[in-house]
Design goal:
Layout lengths: L4 E17 L2 E15 L2 E7 L10 H10 L4 H11 L4 H11 L1 H5 L4 E3 L2 E2 L5 H9 L4 E5 L6 H10 L4 E5 L6 H13 L3 E5 L9 H4 L4 E2 L16 E3 L7 H10 L4 E3 L6 H12 L28 E3 L6 H8 L1
Parallel strand pairs: 5-6, 6-7, 7-8, 8-9, 10-11
Antiparallel strand pairs: 1-2, 2-3, 4-12
The structure holds magnesium ion.
The site of magnesium ion has 6 residues, from loops.
């Protein structure tokens, strides 16, 4: 298939305050916004790699897109041939291909809040905003007693604990036991570095993989996995894998613009067992006009955005 045109825009988005990730503080991220035009219509997608995840870089994606010289069919062929090597680009092309459904998505999903710090005050502030589930980041200074204190002083809140791969095996065991014993903790996310052999001894039931999970290829984990739709590769392949998987899947944002967010929410909503998603990521960038959704404990598809106008404003 040779039909179709592809355009792209590269945008840089600066965080209002550096965002703490498993890779350390991040001040800005670059994204590629794609516009695909075929005889069937126009579609949009977003290449949104995330620091600490072993995908292609923005530069690599730009190089591949440039090499297609505006020819969508050629770009699709190159991306498909690259297989697992270009997961962000393949996700963005999936978004372009499914855009009619994505643009029409106006459903909603329950969303977990992202606490600024692992303190009762920060978690309580999220509960005041209406979030029933709140994610907190663990670092070496935080002890199980601190989290017990949060659970006591913020009644009824459910917690997700994210270690971003920063624990040693002894601490990972302590936190896994804690998550198992505490019914109001959903799971402990990425306690150990990617590929650490200690995962086998922790057991999968309360331990979720995040940084370890990219595309479904080669994943052997019975427990929950955190899926960032923007990083997951081809979406049709992902959905086939998801339909056959028993373990739970938690959908999560990679800090996309409105294009990537609309598409990622749509993908999450295709999963009847999607549960509570992790999209409390709005309001973190300097105002650049590229966020259009509303945040909060229910995240929704956009009802009335003219995507063509949005693209023109970006360009
Ligand atoms: Mg995480």
């Amino acid at each position: 298939m040779n039909g179709g045109k592809i355009d792209f825009l590269r945008v840089r988005r600066r965080f209002r305050r550096p965002l703490l990730t498993g890779r350390g503080p991040v001040e800005a991220v670059d994204r590629l916004l794609l516009r695909a035009e075929t005889a069937e219509g126009v579609g949009y997608g977003e290449v949104a790699p995330w620091p600490g995840f072993p995908t292609e870089t923005i530069e690599q994606a730009v190089e591949v897109i440039r090499s297609a010289q505006g020819n969508l069919g050629r770009l699709r062929a190159v991306a498909e041939a690259a297989g697992e090597a270009l997961p962000c680009l393949r996700a963005a092309l999936s978004s372009c291909a499914h855009w009619t459904e994505i643009a029409g998505f106006t459903g909603h999903l329950a969303c977990a809040g992202l606490a600024e710090r692992a303190t009762s005050a920060a978690v309580g502030a999220k509960v005041t905003e209406g979030f029933a589930t709140v994610k907190v980041k663990l670092d070496a200074a935080i002890r199980p007693d601190d989290v017990r204190g949060i659970l006591t002083s913020v009644p009824a809140v459910r917690l997700r604990l994210d270690a971003n791969g920063g624990l040693d095996l002894a601490a990972a065991r302590t936190w896994t036991d804690f998550a198992r014993a505490e019914p109001r903790v959903d799971f402990l996310e990425q306690p150990l570095p990617v590929g650490h052999p200690g995962y086998a001894s922790l057991g999968a039931d309360q331990v979720a993989l995040d940084e370890s999970f990219l595309t479904p290829a080669g994943v052997d984990w019975a427990g929950p996995v955190v899926v960032k739709p923007s990083l997951v590769g081809d979406w049709d392949a992902f959905r086939a894998w998801r339909a056959a998987r028993l373990g739970s899947v938690v959908y999560s944002s990679a800090f996309e613009t409105a294009i990537g967010r609309q598409a990622a929410l749509w993908l999450a909503a295709q999963d009847p067992a999607a549960g509570t998603v992790g999209f409390d990521t709005l309001g973190r960038f300097e105002r650049d006009g590229r966020d259009r959704h509303a945040g909060g404990p229910l995240v929704r598809g956009l009802l009335d955005l003219n995507w063509n106008d949005f693209w023109k404003e970006l360009a």
